[in-house]
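Human: My hope is that you can spare some time for a protein that puzzles me. I am handing you a single protein, as its sequence and its fold in token form. Could you go through the record with me and say what the backbone is doing? Take your time, and here it is.
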Amino acid sequence: MRVRRRLQRARLTKMRRPLGDIVSLTPTGFDTFLHCPRAFYLREVLGVPASDAGPTNDQGLLVHDMLAHVHMTGSCHDTSHVAAVLDAHAVDSDIMRELVARHAQRCPSAAAERAAHEHTLARFHRMPKPMFMATARIDACWVHDGLLDARDYKTGNLWHSRVCDVPAARVQAFVLGRAAQRRGLRLRLRYEYLQPEIDDDPEPWEPDDDDLVAVEEELRDAVARMHGYDDWPGVGEADACRTCRFRSICRDSATPGEPSWAVLTALES
């Protein structure tokens, strides 16, 4: 009887707290958690589909893909090559050429010894607990002048003047830092804004060993807080909730509405 009760309590605890022993952490997930634990719970833990429409990032994803193709098959400084790649993918336009040209002004490929594009890195934190697995997909990395020069291409709004202040950059630095250390390189993480209305990129981040230790502890502390939640509260602030993809189904939303999910209706007999 006691064994049965223990098993029942264990099952109930697991139902109340579906977060696994090893938490998966991504740049977007970490940023979401800091802004709103409830949104993180719905999206990252439960995998609930978004209930509300949001702005699309089609152009951003497209230019990421095109820059990867341009670099893997030639040079972004070769305008004829760029035009051929864009034409081959039926996306040749003035705006796409301008976005690629803005990158070419800041591209270190000419001096690079090695390069990787659209590359996913992972790093596991085991001790001290709690454990977590951090992953990050990096748009581009170049090795040059003793640097692991990592770039995150951006086509959205500029929110920070320094990359070190961006929550998502913590996860990127955590996985990239180990890769740089193993190669005897310094890490430089740069957010590269491609749209013409943004004149200057935020200040790049070159974290040292002490910075990387602090980053690891910050991520571990966040995961510990995740394990402490049973209720996963929402932020409940109008400015934050207004653009949330779960605002219509979140019990703590300050801007509730009707979800945009498709609704099945009964078929007429």
Q: What stands out?
A: The chain has a mean pLDDT of 90. The two ends are 50 Å apart (CA to CA).
